[in-house]
Amino acid sequence: MATQVFVGASSTADAKKAASEAVAAALRGAARSAHASPPPGPARPAFALVLSTDQYDADALAAAMTSELPGVPWAGCCTAGVFAGSRLLRQGLVVGLVVSETVRVGVGVAQPVSQDGRRAGVLAAARALEAFPSSVPAGWSRALIVLPDALTGNAADVVRGAVEVGGTGVVWAGGGAGDNLRFVRTAQFAGGRAYSDSAVVVAIDSPARMATGIRHGFRPYGPPTMVTRAEGTVLAELEYEGAFSVYQRTARARGDQVNLDGFATFAMTHPLGIPQADGEHVIRDPLRVVSPGGLYCVGEVPDGCLIRVMEGDPIGLVGAAREAATTARDAVAGPIAGAFVFDCISRCMMLGDTVRDELATFESELGQSVPVMGCLTFGEVGTLGRGVPQFHNKTAVVLALGA
């Protein structure tokens, strides 16, 4: 029995009604497929990925989803926006049903991320994988989706902990749970419950190939400089000087003036990049200047690494979306059942109304008949090139599931 993915969405404000509508829409797709298929038709859903915006009461939504999907393991989180195909919902819910007789799925959750993100990542991954064979069966593919609370702790530590258990020889994807840019509280869903300050890990083993594509579309703007002091997510000093002063000087050298009032706007299109051995850059999004002249970033900046100011524009971002989708598609090298996309909220902010061009690009490059769903995350999880899985900013991650 082949793997199939069916997507449903709802923009209804009531949690119970939204869950009913989204699940019903996904099941209608499954029913149509069963009618078109020879007996015995598609199997029971093996898993459901549930992504919502933050307007819903998390406990009410968890109860509603569990009622709509009795006996079906499901997991997910709330984010700043969700989408089904190219339909973007700033209030809503999307559900992706993975239907297969052979796919194996495990879900793990652990907390608190705020106290020990690495331990939370270790425990969540271990719980997701506890019923799995220690190594991936021959001819099978394994994917791990990491959904950490991105507001309460160090999401990069969560990823490190999960990788410690899951290893580097598997497919990694995911993104940070967020809210509608209020930076107050997020929800993670697992085991039929809603959590906060937690990390959720979903493990999937499939006889069909699974693959990711990951791109950001930013290019170098300034020279590499050494991080001489960093404190978690605060980049304090570059070359023993206040990080904001060095950032300003880099901009002046390119003819741009950046003051405190205009920093957030300029930094939106000029994030920081950590160079990797293969020439790629892991993006760090500096949100604000903090006393005495440091830069607060989404995600940690390691002491002693090199970093440089980057630049980007809508054309580059949409081009990166195309590359991410085609990379995942080509790596599957066969029919695609569906795709889950984790796309940074700050990319949406940069693109404005043209964000629908990006969403349409994911859909068109994966194939018009391929169901696509995703969310606007607070940081993303994936592996650039031949590197190790990391926590990224301003990046698009496409997870394609082979049919």
N→C terminal distance:
9 Å
The overall average pLDDT, rounded, is 95
| Helix and strand composition category | alpha+beta
Into which percent range does the helicity of residues fall?
25-40%
Number of strands: 26
Q: Approximately how much beta-strand content do the residues carry?
A: 35-45%
What brief labels describe this structure?
single chain, 403 residues, alpha+beta, 6-stranded mixed β-sheet, 28% helix, 35% strand
Question: What topology does this entry show?
Answer:
Elements: E1 4-10, H1 15-36, E2 45-53, H2 58-68, E3 74-79, E4 82-84, E5 87-89, E6 93-99, E7 104-110, H3 117-129, E8 141-148, H4 155-166, E9 171-174, E10 188-190, E11 193-195, E12 199-206, E13 210-215, E14 219-220, E15 225-231, E16 234-238, E17 241-242, H5 243-253, H6 263-269, E18 272-275, E19 281-290, E20 294-298, E21 306-311, H7 314-332, E22 336-344, H8 345-351, H9 355-366, E23 372-377, E24 380-382, E25 390-392, E26 396-402
Helix pairs in contact: 1-2, 3-4, 7-9
Structural write-up:
The protein is α+β, with helices and mostly antiparallel strands and 403 residues long. It is built from nine helices and 26 strands. The protein has helices at residues 15-36, 58-68, 117-129, 155-166, 243-253, 263-269, 314-332, 345-351, 355-366; strands at residues 4-10, 45-53, 74-79, 82-84, 87-89, 93-99, 104-110, 141-148, 171-174, 188-190, 193-195, 199-206, 210-215, 219-220, 225-231, 234-238, 241-242, 272-275, 281-290, 294-298, 306-311, 336-344, 372-377, 380-382, 390-392, 396-402. It has a six-stranded mixed beta sheet. Helix 1 (15-36) packs parallel to helix 2 (58-68), helix 3 (117-129) runs parallel beside helix 4 and helix 7 (314-332) packs parallel to helix 9. The protein is globular, with a radius of gyration of 20 Å. The chain starts with a strand and ends with a strand.
